[in-house]
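Appendix B. Chain record.
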Amino acid sequence: MKFALLIYENEANFTGADAAEKISRRKAGHQAFGAANRAVIVGGAGLRTTETATTVRAPAKGADRSLHDGPFAETHEQLGGFYLVDVPDREAAVALALEIPVGQNGSIEIRQVMAE
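Structure tokens predicted for this chain:
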């Protein structure tokens, strides 16, 4: 079964004078996670910050779609990256999600991929 493990964190946690060090530590954590779980990870990537995002919004019936800079939702956490994993069941996906390096108040959303 394939699952997307979506990583949400507050981008503000990676700013300030020590931002490069924070990013470097988190990146090292993800590299270690990836190496340890190479057998079940079939894809994934980190994402650039939300200031580089564009959202296409589907309007009410009869209107044109519109483009907006940034993410659609105003939240304290932003989607920062994801892993696509192929594991036997949801419990295995949960076990992997518990290992993903994420900061305080961050979260991992587990979503099963639709059958092909």
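Further analysis of this model is presented in Appendix C.
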